[in-house]
Amino acid sequence: MPAPNSRYSLDGVWESGIASAVGYLLGGSVLVLIGVNGADLVPPLPGAPGWAWVPVLLLGCIGLVFRRRSVPVMLAVTGTAVVASMLLGGGIITYLLLFELFYAGILFGSPQVSRAAQTAAVAGVVILPVVSGLSYGGWPAAFFGLLQAVLICLIPLWWAGSVRRQSDRAEQERQRAETERLRAERTEELAELNLRVAVAAERSAMARELHDAIAGHLSAVALQSAAALAAGNPDLDRRVLAQVRTESVQALREMRSMIDLLEADDGPDAVPLDTASGGLDQLAALAGSARLAGNPVDLDMEPGLEVPVLVGSTCYRIVQEALSNAVRHAPGRPVTIRVREAENLLDISIRNALPRESVPQDGVPAAAAGVDPCRSGNGSGLRNMSLRAGALQGSFSAGIADAGEDGAEWLVQALLPVGSPADRPLTQEIH
């Protein structure tokens, strides 16, 4: 047997059909016993016993037990009792059972059953007066039948329909509130996920900055000091010491800049972490630092070059990392830096000659491949350069180029979009 329908659990409506059945049984019995009865809707069958109302009322009340659990069962059982009551002269019993038949069918039935019960109630208002008029003859009987039809058909139609509409609205509001609650939970989960992604991206950006800025300067300090120790030249020593101090101060300045950015409040004017330091105007200083480390550097940069700040900062970081790799993996070998703008693209290329012995059979520099563990890295530099170029929708490549009798060259190349002049609210200009 289906579980009770809890959809219409309203104040004043009994949860259990047993309570309703007992109430109708007691009420109907009292009304009949004290003599309160009404005219039958149709003349009863001849010879109907006077006690016939007892089994009819019991049958109807048994059907009412299922008024909430199974409305079709209630309609079938109680409907049978209503027909029997009409034929056996049930009087007031007929009215009570017919009233409850319409009320429970409209309120507790499925949408299809409810609509059918409403249609039957409306039809009863038309049919009952006609039946009464034809059965008893004359307009008075028809008018009295109309009054009875209003009481047992229209009142339950209005009452049950009103309660059901209110219940439907309450259910819709409950479902809407549940939907809003679920949407709020999903929004909160999405916001938390976005926060995690943002934190991870910020950590990755911080790691790149620390690697490119601090590690780059410290690598320059180590390589320059090693070159000075190997040369044994007092003049070179002083120049190297001066450059070491410059690199150290610059590293501290960039670290301070990063700390300030991390401590600053977010806002529409917040400076991106990638633009904390570095630009095209500092490429000459990078070249000078590499020269002091022992690598001849030729910087070929287009004069009057104007690029957005973020593009300039990315160019600086790529050149810085490429020079650090050149000094580390190809000490003393010449390096050529070329920076040009063409077709709204900043073309950056860094070439450094490699010793013949540093190129194994598979075409990968020996130092980069791990032949010299003292000079090899973990590959994060190339990865960071590629990520920086990709962040600007640019391209990046690195590998062996122009292998010949004079030795191979390691080529690092990046193409960074600079956009049209209208898209450059923040720019750097090099004279």
Outline the structure in words:
The protein has 431 residues and is α+β, with helices and mostly antiparallel strands. It folds into two domains: 17-184, no CATH class; 280-431, 2-Layer Sandwich (Heat Shock Protein 90), CATH 3.30.565. 60% of the residues lie in helices and 10% in strands. The chain contains eleven helices and seven strands. The chain has helices at residues 17-33, 53-64, 71-88, 92-108, 111-136, 139-231, 234-263, 283-292, 309-329, 366-369, 380-391, and strands at 297-301, 306-308, 335-342, 345-353, 395-401, 409-417, 427-429. A five-stranded mixed beta sheet has the order 1-3-4-6-5. It has a two-stranded antiparallel sheet with strand order 2-7. The radius of gyration is 47 Å and the shape is rod-shaped. Residues 1-14, 361-375 and 421-431 have low confidence and may be disordered.
Tell me about the biggest sheet? Answer: 5 strands, mixed
User: What is the H/E string?
Assistant: HHHHHHHHEEHEEHHEEE
Number of strands: 7
**Tally of helical runs:** 11
Radius of gyration: 47 Å
Q: What overall form do the CA principal axes indicate?
A: rod-shaped
Give the quaternary arrangement of the chains: single chain
Helical amount among residues, as a percent range?
55-70%
Class inferred from helices and paired strands: alpha+beta
Order of the strands making up the biggest sheet: 1-3-4-6-5
How far the N terminus sits from the C terminus, by CA atoms, comes to: 90 Å
Roughly what is the average pLDDT, rounded to an integer? Answer: 75
Count up the domains. 2
User: Regions with pLDDT < 50 over 5+ consecutive residues?
Assistant: 1-14, 361-375, 421-431
Q: How much strand?
A: 5-15%
Protein name: histidine kinase
Pfam family, one: HisKA_3
Keywords: ATP-binding, Coiled coil, Kinase, Membrane, Nucleotide-binding, Phosphoprotein, Transferase, Transmembrane, Transmembrane helix, Two-component regulatory system
InterPro entries: HATPase_C_sf, Sensor_HK_TwoCompSys, Sig_transdc_His_kin_sub3_dim/P
